[in-house]
Amino acid sequence: MQYPFVIKASGIREPFDPTKLETSLRHAGTPEDMIVSIVNTVSAEVVENMETRDIYRRAFSLLRKNKTYKPIALKYSLRRAVAEMGPNGHPFEELVGELLRYKGYDVRVAIMVKGWCVEHEVDVSARQDGTHRLIECKFHNNHGIRSDLKTVLYVQARFEDIEKRQLQDDSEHDRFHEAWLASNTKFTENAIVYAECVGMKLLSWSYPKGAGLRDLMNEVRVFPITILPGLSLSQKQALMNRGVATCTQLVRNEALARELGVMPKKWAQVKNEIALLCGPSAKEMPQEDEVVLS
After folding, report:
1. Which residue in 50, 223, 267, 294 has the most C-beta neighbors within 10 A?
2. Is 247 within 8 Å of 123 (Cβ atoms)?
3. How many CB atoms lie within 10 A of CB 176?
4. How confident is residue 65, by pLDDT bands cut at 50, 70 and 90?
5. Residue 69 pLDDT greater than 90, yes or no
């Protein structure tokens, strides 16, 4: 069957591919019979030059109609929810930090570290098993934009400047051993090749395969607050401005939610949505402490 051409987030036109829709539904945990039903319905409605975001919105609306599939519907909107964490990149840094906390890392977000030439703001510092990681976070509102070779070169240069200073100071405790680059979109092929060559770890939406950002969020059940339909856009933005970027952080900051005008009835709805996504253990992670490395 010949399908109409659709427009991707990057602006590129390509024939509609129903298998991509199937894959996205499967990643969200949709049952196979529901996948078949949604793909058949949506495929019949696709028209020439339709935007892929409208295709996925239609699939989301079909999922949301059935209350049984509410948790799946929430997860299906995950990529869009992450893209809505802007306009600045700090909430995404908080998300990456929270994901790593739930993986057992000792994490600090947005710290200042002296390099050999200049001082640098490190987006995320993560320590585990004696290895200290410097993590740069690259956020894009449009998932059609890729992080390229220039970004990887920039991160490597910062890492080397900091490493030179720390080797000179002979401070093993504070020393960074690895550089990471985390992005909510994708990397260009050259960026991946260079990162592999210099030993930099890359983390993007679906890279490494089976261990990307989407996989990590589903594994540890940490999700951005932008995924919650129970909060208004202004409430989400106000919370992110106060450093609360994930559902798990929100559960630990109920008083702040009330302060920002989330009424008791609405808060009960939000807590139910968080429980569906994160499970009952969302409140167990302790608050992080602030430190400055020099």
Report:
1. 223
2. no
3. 22
4. confident
5. no
Tokens of 262: 């989330």
Contact 281, 255 (CB under 8 A): no
Cβ contacts of 154 within 8 Å, gap of 6 or more: 136
E-state strands within 68-199: 106-114, 119-128, 131-138, 146-147, 178-183, 186-187
Number of neighbours of residue 85 by Cβ within 10 angstroms: 26
* DSSP labels, 2-60: PPPEEE-TTS-EEE--HHHHHHHHHHTT--HHHHHHHHHHHHHH--TTEEHHHHHHHHH
Q: Is the domain defined by 90-220 classed in CATH 3.40.1350.10?
A: yes
- Residue 165 CA from chain centroid, whole number: 31
| Domain locations in the chain as residue ranges | 5-76, 90-220, 222-278
Q: Which of 67-71, 97-101, 252-256, 271-275 bottoms out in mean pLDDT, i.e. has the lowest? A: 67-71
Question: What is the phi/psi pair of residue 255, to 5°?
Answer: -60, -40
User: What single-letter DSSP state applies at residue 141?
Assistant: S
Q: How far is CA 15 from the centre of its chain?
A: 28
pLDDT digits (tens, 9 = 90+) for 154-210: 999 999 999 999 988 766 667 999 999 999 999 999 999 999 999 999 999 999 999
Could you report the per-residue pLDDT of 233-277, keeping only the tens digit for each?
999 999 999 999 999 999 999 999 889 888 999 999 999 999 989
Q: With contact defined as beta carbons under 8 Å apart, do 78 and 258 qualify? A: no
pLDDT of residue 282: 64
β-pair partners for 14: 6
